[in-house]
Design goal:
Helices cover 59% and strands 10% of the residues. By secondary structure, it is an alpha+beta fold. The N and C termini lie far apart (48 Å).
Length: 273
């Protein structure tokens, strides 16, 4: 299965999120990455955690035991000092450095939990990603970025308000499990922002190309590719993607600004001819 492309990974009947995340890491930044090595590392974490959970009876106790194992015994933690470091968005780097952001730490938490037989999933709150565990009608919410702290609905509401400034009522739909495809897309979106923050246009382009594999009908990815190619000086490719965006999205709010960008690109190209 190590030979599957990213596109093949996301088209599997059941998507293996850690494996797909390691696959895009190898595609984008780590060409010699040994995917099976890191999957085995997750497996070892699960086996090492098993005795700690065996002494727990309730779901809450097992959630706490897993959090204690990962975030205190093994020292995985949120990278508050360098949140925008792209390495925080790569699962292999999270395993190597024991540093991550909410979504990658949640992917690790749920991957280990599932290998321990728990029903675990990611939850994409606006502005913050957490993990959920479910058993016999009971749900436990945890925040892997904050050492696996157990969360109440009130806590989740506070997280949303603090991270986004949202002032309306909390929406229960925000607690729905995130699908594997949407989870991977959110990981890639975070990675895009990290590379743009660094003005690393080439890496951002590679990330968005993976986003297009997941979301082929999302037109703004074409716009973003066009702008990024403009920034890195690939003007013909920039024109190609900007033209395609304008063709597909004639009613877009940014239609005029994108058309102006295309005219700038076309003007520069004309100077070359």
């Amino acid at each position: 299965m190590n030979s599957l492309t990213f596109l093949q990974e996301i088209n599997q009947p059941t998507i293996n999120v850690p494996r797909a995340a390691l696959r895009f890491a190898r595609d984008i930044a780590y060409p010699t990455l040994a995917i099976e090595h890191y999957l085995a590392q997750i497996g070892r974490l699960a086996e090492d955690a098993r005795p700690h959970l065996a002494r727990s009876s309730s779901l809450e106790e097992r959630a706490d035991a897993l959090s204690d194992f990962l975030f205190f015994k093994n020292d995985f933690r949120g990278n508050r000092e360098a949140y925008n470091d792209p390495r925080n968005s790569y699962l292999n780097c999270v395993l190597d450095r024991k540093l991550g952001i909410p979504i990658t730490l949640s992917v690790l938490y749920t991957a280990v939990a599932r290998q321990l037989g728990l029903s675990a999933y990611g939850i994409g709150l606006p502005g913050h990603f957490i993990a959920g565990l479910y058993e016999d009608g009971q749900e436990v919410l945890v925040d892997p970025f904050n050492a696996g702290l157990r969360l109440s609905i009130t806590d989740c509401d506070k997280l949303v308000r603090e991270s986004t400034g949202f002032e309306g009522p909390f929406q229960p739909k925000w607690l729905a499990p995130v699908s594997p495809v949407n989870l991977l897309a959110r990981m890639l979106n975070n990675l895009t922002h990290a590379y743009i923050h660094q003005e690393n246009w080439d890496s951002a382009i590679s990330v968005i190309k993976h986003l297009l594999l997941i979301q082929p009908d999302t037109d703004f990815h074409l716009r973003d590719l066009g702008l990024l190619y403009m920034y890195n000086g690939s003007l013909r490719l920039s024109a190609q993607y900007l033209e395609e965006y304008l063709r597909r999205s004639p009613g877009a709010e940014d239609f005029e600004s994108v058309r102006n960008s295309l005219q700038i690109v076309a003007g520069r190209l004309a100077l070359w001819n």
